[in-house]
Amino acid sequence: IETGPVALLLGFLTATIPVPLYIALVLWIDRYEGEPLWMLATAFFWGALIATFFAFLLNTSMQLLVHAIAGESAGEAFAAVVSAPIVEETGKAVILFIFFFFKKDEFDGVIDGVVYASMSALGFAMSENILYYGKAAASGGGEALTAVFILRGFFAPFSHPLFTSLTGIGLGLARQSNNLGIKIITPIIGLLMAMFMHSLWNGSAVFGGGVVFLLIYILVMIPAFFIMLFVISMALRREGRIVREFLVVDLERGFLTQEEYKQLGSIIGRMGSSFNALSSSGYKGWRARMRFNQLASELAFHRSRVARGVCSAEQDVRELETAYLYALQGLMSEFRGR
Q1: Dihedral sign of CA atoms 86, 87, 88, 89 in order
Q2: What is this structure's pTM?
C-alpha cells in the first residue's frame, strides 16, 4: 500500500467523516419525490468502488504509456488533463445511463439526474480523497493532511458532483422531452460538458499553478455552481407544476381537501405540513405525513409518465394508481381523524 496503514486510516477517516453531510445536502434537493434508497446506495457505491477501480486501471495505464513515449511529466499531465476527465466522467455516468434506460419509473427529469449523478460522484470523490489524504498524511504528517483537506474538502467538495451533474442534467432533459433530437443530443452534450469542466479544473492546477487555479475557481467554478443552483430551482418549479397538474383531479372529486392540495403543490407547504404533524403528533405523525407527501408525488409523476407514454410495457398502470390511492386514503384517515 502506497500510504502505509496508519496514513491510510487517517485518509479514510478524513475522507468519510464529511460524506453524510454532503449526502444530506444532495438529498435535500429532491423535495417532491425522493428516490429509492437502494438506487441512491447503488449510485454511491458504484462511484466509490466500480468507477474508481476502472479509473485507476485506465488512468494508470495511460499515464505509463505516455510516460514511456514522452517522459514522466507528459505522462502525469496527460493522465490528469485528458485521461482522467474522459475515464472518470464516463465511469461515474454509466450508472446514470443504466437507471435512465432500465428504471424509467424512477428517473423523471433533471432533479433525478442531479441526485443520482451527485451520489455517484460523492462516492467517487470519497474513494479518491482516501488516497489523496493518505498520501498527504504519509508524506507530510498533519500539516500536509490539513492543507490537502482544506483544498479538496473545503474549496472543492462539490467539484465531482458538479461535473457529473452536467451528465445528469442532459439525461433529465432527455427524459422530460418528447423530441427525438433532444433525447439523443442532450445526454451527449451533458457528458462532454462534464469532461470539459473536469479537464479545465485539472488543467488549471497542472499547467497554471496557484494563480491560474484560483482564477478558474473564481471565474468558472463558482459561477457554474450558482448556475447549477438556478437550474435546480427551475427543475423544482417544474416538479411542483407536475404535482399540481396531476393531482387537481383528486381535488375536484373531493379526494383531497383544498388545504392538502395546496400543501402538496409547494415546497414550503410540504415542509409546513410535516412540521405541523411533528409538533402535533410527534415522530409517528411526522413519518405518516412525510409518507403521504411522498406517495402523492409518486402518484402525480406516475400519471405524468402515463400521459407521456414513458412506462414499462409490463407495468399495469391502473393497478398501480389504485394502489397509490388506497395507500393515500389510509394515511388521510389518520390525519383527518385527529
Answers
A1: positive
A2: 0.92
